[in-house]
Design a protein that fits this description.
alpha/beta; 173 residues; Tetrahydropterin Synthase, Chain A; six-stranded mixed β-sheet
Amino acid sequence: MAALEFTRRYAMAHRLLATQSPKCAIPHGHNEFVTVRLDPITTFKFTDTNSAAPFELAKKRWHQWIDDHVDHALHLGESDPLIGYFRENEPALLKQIMTFQGDPTTEALAACFFLKLSAFIADDKLPFTVREVRIEETPTNTVIITRETFDPATNGLRPSAWPHRADMSINDF
């Protein structure tokens, strides 16, 4: 079977506190593109359908999650004091905050996307594995996570954290 690749655009905001970059310590936003590449579990052979799974089935849940939960989310580290503000003053907006162990860097985002997409694929029993997640943060900055550069089993993330779950979550509130 042939590899599948698809791209989605979304808007987000984040701030980075641990990196101690004055520019990134203030909440700011990006219009980002995420491109994912899925490898089939088996090699291509001509069949009646000539595909491992319809494109629509392979990308439906992923696109729904990006469009309905990731788009316009605020990305914060779990220890960011802004989370306390939202808990006390605007608790209804907590569902729009994506949380991270440590700073919400593009590298961390790509790793979380890799895990979430892998969870969706496994839960939907699709005949693919995630090969690559590429996030274009700006036209000049892109982060790429691949199976060769990221080990989902030994990544340091809590096993119960939201990226491991095949639900629509973006945090553990």
